[in-house]
């Protein structure tokens, strides 16, 4: 098994980091719902990769009707794909997803169990898919389904950005490893002895050039996969000798909606974290109004 390989021989028990903080990656997962040639055929400039739970059809439909609808922006082609794992129960979801996939051609479903603690696996199979399916695409963005995304500002930034070895988003620098057992992102010393993480971009929305997936995957064979997915991408980047880049200026990638937004807020940012995808419907309307009012 991978764990034993990493340490050569099985270490004495007291040195073994608790396994629940790691996930089963690398591993031979396979796509059971796929779009094998769409990205190759269309060769978009940018692909948006959206992790979403299998049952969350509502979030997918809202994205298809908001930022997922913007397919030609500043003369560049953009497409989106939803990333799903397997749902827990045999609940007839498989049939629904096949129908949804036939209608929209934007579903990628891999055969690992879809759960919060398996998000690292989802991100890594995303990199696998991108590195083999989009040979003529310049950038990809991983973006959560509860995010506002201004595709126009994103493309505008990318047209001026490096085309290689590039990753940007909301940067975490010198982030402390959380040692409080009750924290959602707890990691014990035995699993990660250093007190801070290397620089990484927060997982809810980051952009990268499409030469990176292969480099991150190569590094992942040497870096044991922790369950905190954005941290793990940062660890693989570090192993590959790479670091993420700051966005060209502050305020493009925002954590929360400010309590007082100015009248051109939504036309000035790239991303903002929302409460849920219903809020996205509402905010999208405000964004359209701002965009048409000379912002
Ligand atoms: C993660 O996925 C693997 C493969 O499907 C599964 O064996 C494991 O139980 C899942 N872990 C969690 C925490 O859901
Ligand atoms: C790759 O994309 C560019 C522009 O997006 C296009 O001009 C070129 O023909 C494409 N190449 C292939 C092999 O599809």
From TrEMBL:
Keywords: Glycoprotein, Glycosyltransferase, Golgi apparatus, Lipid metabolism, Membrane, Signal-anchor, Transferase, Transmembrane, Transmembrane helix
Membrane topology: Single-pass type II membrane protein
Record flagged with keyword Oxidoreductase: no
Pathway(s) per entry: Protein modification; protein glycosylation
Pfam families: Galactosyl_T
GO biological process: lipid metabolic process; protein O-linked glycosylation
Annotated InterPro entries: Glyco_trans_31 (IPR002659)
Enzyme class: transferase
UniProt KW Membrane keyword: yes
Gene Ontology molecular-function annotations: N-acetyl-beta-D-glucosaminide beta-(1,3)-galactosyltransferase activity
Annotated GO CC locations: Golgi membrane
Localization in the cell: Golgi apparatus membrane
Main localization, broad class: Golgi
Cited Gene3D superfamilies: 3.90.550.50
Known EC number: 2.4.1.-
Record-stated family: Belongs to the glycosyltransferase 31 family.
Name listed for the protein in its UniProt record: Hexosyltransferase
Organism of derivation: Amphiprion percula (Orange clownfish)
């Amino acid at each position: 098994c991978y764990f034993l390989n990493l340490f050569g021989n099985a270490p004495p028990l007291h040195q073994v980091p608790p396994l629940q903080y790691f996930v089963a990656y690398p591993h031979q997962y396979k796509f059971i719902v796929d779009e094998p040639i769409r990205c190759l055929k269309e060769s978009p400039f940018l692909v948006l990769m959206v992790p979403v739970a299998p049952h969350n059809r509502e979030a997918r439909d809202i994205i298809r009707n908001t930022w997922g609808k913007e397919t030609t922006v500043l003369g560049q082609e953009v497409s989106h794909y939803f990333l799903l794992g397997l749902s827990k129960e045999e609940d007839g979801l498989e049939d629904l997803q096949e129908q949804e996939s036939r209608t929209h051609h934007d579903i990628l479903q891999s055969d690992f169990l879809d759960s919060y603690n398996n998000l690292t696996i989802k991100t890594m199979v995303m990199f696998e898919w991108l590195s083999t399916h989009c040979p003529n695409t310049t950038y990809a963005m991983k973006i959560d389904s509860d995010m506002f995304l201004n595709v126009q500002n994103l493309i505008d930034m990318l047209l001026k950005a490096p085309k290689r070895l590039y990753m940007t988003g909301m940067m975490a620098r010198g982030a402390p490893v959380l040692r409080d057992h009750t924290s959602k992102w707890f990691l014990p010393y035995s699993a990660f002895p250093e007190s801070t993480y290397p620089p990484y971009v927060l997982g809810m929305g980051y952009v990268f050039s499409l030469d990176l997936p292969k480099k991150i995957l190569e590094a992942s064979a040497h870096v044991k996969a922790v369950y905190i997915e954005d941290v793990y991408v940062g660890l693989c980047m570090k192993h590959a000798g790479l670091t993420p880049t700051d966005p060209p200026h502050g305020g493009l990638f925002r954590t929360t909606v400010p309590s007082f937004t100015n009248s051109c807020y939504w036309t000035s940012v790239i991303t903002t974290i929302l409460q849920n995808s219903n809020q996205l419907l509402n905010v999208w309307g405000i964004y359209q109004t701002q965009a048409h009012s000379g912002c």
